[in-house]
Structures are given as structure tokens and as C-alpha cells.
Design brief:
The complex is a heterodimer of chains A (289) and B (250). Chain A contains 11 helices and 10 strands. In chain A, 34% of the residues lie in helices and 17% in strands. With 289 residues, chain A is of the alpha/beta class. In chain B, 45% of the residues lie in helices and 18% in strands. In chain B, a hairpin with a 2-residue loop joins strand 2 and strand 3. Classes of the chains: A alpha/beta (289), B alpha/beta (250). At the A-B interface, helix 5, helix 6, helix 7, helix 8 and strand 9 of A face helix 5, helix 6, helix 7, helix 8 and helix 12 of B.
Chain lengths: 289, 250
């Protein structure tokens, strides 16, 4: 037993895009410059030299968006089963758990953002590319049900390659399950703010990523239904450079705003404040809301 | 029969397409066109008519039979406009308290630049969310190919039927084999693993009934039977049952 492992928590490992994991510097894939890990953290995992966005893990994301020590995790113990007996899936799950030190590809819970109580979920691309199987679907569904019961808003951060192939139709139908829960939460008057990060594709794009009341995205994030290689192959032509990039998707009318990382918390906080029940809003000095 | 043979069979010529089922089950079918937003996607054929004496809205994904027909219907791969037309007519059905019948036969939603930029993901997401709240009974039948999200978009129903030699899958066996082994030639193995045939999906509790092939008359009777049961339910009970139907999966 490696004793060090006992003390390593999932949330204190710097995200490094797989480069020099334990080193104190991160080499940027974009510009090749070295930056100390501490600085990268301070800069919200954006390269200080070239502005490249590094992959951000789910737990780190929640820490970044929520008020200090306000997060309580839900359903952490849920783990996937190989219901279909899909070859090599058990081993893949085990490897994903080891690699990510998470039980599944989404983290759910309650927290405060700038003082506002929210239900929050964040997906983790380190766990099988954030793919959605039964457990991911179940956790997000439960979160929306909890939010509807407690009249709370939901803030979600998506990153996913889509439905998880290894669970076959069970994973595809999670799209239906989650969509129904999102709709119930919405019908109960609940606010759902979704933040799309790179990449949000496939079955997640075609369900809860596109069902927010307010849809935000990170700069440059890939957002789309079909994989770009699939389209390229079927059309036999090169795709435009900005194809499926957040900026282009916004221009097409499917995103409300692109928000840089260092502003995400204040922007979401502000939007939450604008959706507080009128009685709970603070009046300004003139007595206006 | 091997699972991959079923997949190949579901793609083959000479099968009854959505329009064949529509003409045989709904003799007075009247087609309605357009999504009222952008265009009319002919991959989706939709309209009104009576099924066993019951007025219904029917929405089918049509592949076409001759080359010309196939081009008109885009080989049964819908654009966002197709899903939006379907949704428009489902909302209309709700208004007039008509049940909805969806006939699904597609390799998948269309993959292309236009489809993406017109919001393919959003169109499917809307379809799923709206169907989950639709206050009228919905029955979906997978006629041949049930290709991933593009088929799922019209399958958020109270009852999902499958023709015995149809398939419904999260991914095509070829793509699955390509992702797993970088070898599309192993599609047959992948098909076996994906549990995509009607009997297997029924065993998993994901679909409700397996229907005999080439029997539109029998299918019409089965659908009418279900619609009669569903129509007797209150809106609340219907929506709650539909919610539970999907809630228990996984």
C-alpha cells in the first residue's frame, strides 16, 4: 500500500493536461512556456502567456465557482455496474477511478455561489471523457429532483463526449430520464444555468446541455452534436476553423454569453441574484428593487 | 439470427418504410408540412388521420425506396427542422387532445454543417423535454433502424414498440468497433455486445412490446389498444407514468 495515496485527495492535484504531473511547473501545450503550478491555479488554469484554457477537473471547478467550504456532495458513493457484461468495461471503470480518483464522471451537490444556495453539478473529463452512463444520468436526475423539491436553482458545468457506449441503450435513455427531470424542475419555476466547457458533444449536447434557461460557455469550447471527424468524413470536405466553437455557436443563436473563467463566478452570482424571489431581494437606498 | 444480421437487415431494401405503415394503418392520412421556423424537412413525414377510427397525429421518419425518393427524404436522416416539425405537430396534437404515433426508422440524425449550425443538439433536447410533458398519449414504434439520438428524439413515449427485426442502439456497431478496436470489420462482435435487438431490449425493460414484421394491420390494432388504455388516464396519471417509465432506467 502506497501510504502517500492515503493522503492524496482528489481535489488537491493540479490539472496538467497530463504533462509533467508532479512537477512544480506546467508546460503550456499552446505556447510551450513553463508556468509555476501555483500561478496557474491563481490564473484559473488559463495560461498566463498565451491565454490557452487548460482542462479543469470537476472538483476544482466547483471550488472555483462556489463559496468557501459551502459544498456538500450528494451521491458520491454511486458506482457504475457492467449491466450488459460489456467486455473490458469493468477494467475501464477501474482504470478511470484510479486515474481520476473519482467514482464517476459527474460530481453533484449543494453549495453557495456568492451567497446564493444552489444545486450544482460538474462533469469530469478525466473519467472516461465525461461520458454519460446510468450513474451519471441518475446523479443528475436526483439533483434536479432535489432542486425541484427544495425550490433551488441548478448550476451545471458540462464536459462530455456523449452517451457511454459500454452501457448501450441504458445510457442513451439517460438522455430521456435527465430531460424529463430538467423539465419538471423548469415547470416548478426552477432556474437552470448551464456552463458549456470543452468539449460538450453527443448525447449530453442533445439533452441537458441544451436545456438551460441561461446557456453560458467558455471561450473556444467545442459545442456540438456530431463529432467533427464524422462530419468531415461524411461530407468529404474540411470544416471551417470556428465550426462548433462556442463563439460560432453563439453567433448561430444557441448560447447566451461566453464568459471567461475569471468572471464565471461573479456572472453566475449576478444571474442568481436576478432570479431571487422578489421578497428576498435587497432593496437599494431608494427603496427600489 | 446473429445480431449484426438484424442490423444489416434493418438497413436493407425491400422493407416496409414509415410511409408504407402510414398508408396501411391510416388510410385517410393527410400530410402537414413545415416547422414554421425555417423549412420543411422531408426526412420527417407527418400529418393527421384516423387509426382504427381514432384521430391521431402521426410522425414518421421516412427513408424512401427509389433513389429519387431517398434523396427527397435525405435517406431518413432528419435535420433540426424535421424534429421541430415533429414537435410543432405534437403540440398541435396536445391542443386537440389527439394521441401521437411516432414511427422511427433512421440511421441517425443528419451529420452536417447546416444541421449543426441550426442546432441539431438543441432540437433533440427540446424534443425530449417537450415530449416528457406532452399532455396526450404517445406511442413510438421502431420500425427498422433506431439510430442513437436521432431515433431517441421521437421515442420519449408512454409505450415503445419495436418490430421484431428492428434494432435500437446508442451507436452504430461499425462506430463502436472503430472506437474500441480501430477496426470496423469487427462490427458483428460489437453488435452482439451492444444489446440492440428487440428481444434483448425488452428483457432489459427498455422497450414495451415486440411486434411481428410485415404486419401493419396487426400493429395498428396493437397501437389502438394501447392508445385506448392511455387515453382513459388523467393527464396527471399519464405524465407521472411516463416520468416513471424513464425514471427507473439504470
Amino acid at each position: 500500500m502506497d501510504l502517500r495515496k492515503l493522503f492524496l485527495k482528489a481535489n488537491n492535484e493540479p490539472e496538467t493536461n497530463g504533462l509533467l504531473p508532479r512537477s512544480r511547473h506546467i508546460v503550456c501545450k499552446g505556447c510551450g512556456r513553463k508556468t509555476p503550478v501555483a500561478r496557474v491555479r491563481r490564473e484559473f488554469f488559463v495560461c498566463p502567456s498565451c491565454g490557452r484554457y487548460y482542462t479543469m477537473r470537476a472538483r476544482r471547478r466547483i471550488l472555483m465557482l462556489t463559496d468557501k467550504r459551502s459544498f456538500t456532495e450528494h451521491d458520491r458513493e454511486l458506482v457504475s455496474r457492467n449491466t450488459l457484461g460489456f467486455p473490458e468495461y469493468d477494467a475501464k471503470l477501474l482504470a478511470a477511478r484510479e486515474k481520476s480518483r473519482e467514482n464517476e464522471a459527474v460530481i453533484c451537490g449543494t453549495a453557495r455561489i456568492e451567497g446564493h444556495e444552489v444545486c450544482i453539478f460538474a462533469m469530469d473529463s478525466y473519467f472516461m471523457m465525461g461520458s454519460m452512463g446510468a450513474v451519471v444520468g441518475e446523479k443528475i436526475t436526483r439533483l434536479f429532483e432535489y432542486a425541484a423539491d427544495h425550490r433551488m436553482p441548478v448550476v451545471g458545468v458540462t464536459v462530455s463526449g456523449g452517451a457511454r457506449m459500454q452501457e448501450g441503450m441504458i445510457s442513451l435513455m439517460q438522455m430521456s430520464k435527465v430531460s424529463a427531470a430538467v423539465r419538471r424542475h423548469s415547470d416548478a419555476g426552477g432556474l437552470y444555468i448551464v456552463l458549456l466547457t470543452d468539449p460538450t458533444t453527443g448525447g449530453v449536447d442533445a439533452s441537458f446541455a441544451m436545456q438551460g434557461d441561461i446557456t453560458l460557455a467558455e471561450p473556444g469550447a467545442r459545442v456540438g452534436f456530431a463529432g467533427p471527424r464524422v462530419i468531415e468524413k461524411s461530407l468529404n470536405q474540411a470544416l471551417p476553423k470556428d465550426f462548433q466553437r462556442a463563439e460560432r455557436v453563439l453567433a448561430c443563436g444557441f448560447i447566451d454569453a461566453i464568459v471567461p473563467r475569471n468572471e464565471q463566478r461573479t456572472v453566475i452570482g449576478k444571474l442568481l441574484a436576478l432570479h431571487e424571489p422578489v421578497a428576498a431581494r435587497k432593496e437599494d437606498s431608494d427603496g427600489r428593487l | 439470427m446473429e445480431d449484426y444480421d438484424i442490423v444489416c437487415g434493418a438497413r436493407s431494401d425491400g422493407r416496409l418504410t414509415a410511409c408504407d405503415y402510414i398508408t396501411r394503418m391510416i388510410p385517410d392520412f393527410f400530410e402537414l408540412h413545415g416547422d414554421r421556423l425555417y423549412g420543411d424537412d422531408r426526412a420527417v413525414v407527418a400529418g393527421v388521420g384516423t387509426l382504427k377510427g381514432m384521430p391521431v397525429t402521426v410522425i414518421g421518419i421516412e427513408k424512401g425506396k427509389t433513389t429519387e425518393e431517398r434523396i427527397v427524404h435525405n435517406f431518413g436522416s432528419a435535420h433540426p427542422e424535421g424534429y421541430r416539425k415533429a414537435l410543432r405537430l405534437m403540440k398541435q396534437a396536445e391542443k386537440f387532445r389527439r394521441p401521437v404515433l411516432c414511427l422511427v426508422d433512421t440511421a441517425g440524425a443528419f451529420c452536417g454543417i447546416d444541421a449543426e449550425e441550426h442546432g441539431q443538439g438543441r432540437a433533440i433536447a427540446d424534443s425530449l423535454a417537450e415530449m416528457s410533458a406532452l399532455k396526450t398519449p404517445v406511442v413510438s414504434v421502431i420500425l427498422g433502424e433506431g439510430g442513437s439520438g436521432g431515433a431517441l428524439a421521437l421515442s420519449h413515449a408512454d409505450r415503445i414498440f419495436m418490430i421484431e427485426d428492428a434494432y435500437f442502439s446508442v451507436v452504430s456497431p461499425e462506430s463502436c468497433a472503430n472506437i474500441l478496436w480501430k477496426d470496423t470489420a469487427r462490427a458483428a462482435e460489437a453488435a452482439e455486445m451492444l444489446c440492440l435487438t428487440a428481444p434483448k431490449l425488452q428483457k432489459l425493460g427498455l422497450i414495451d412490446r415486440v411486434c411481428p414484421k410485415n404486419a401493419p394491420e396487426r400493429l395498428a390494432a396493437d397501437i389502438a389498444g394501447e392508445l385506448t388504455v392511455l387515453s382513459a388516464m388523467s393527464d396527471e396519471a399519464l405524465l407521472e407514468a411516463r416520468y416513471r417509465r424513464f425514471r427507473r432506467i439504470g
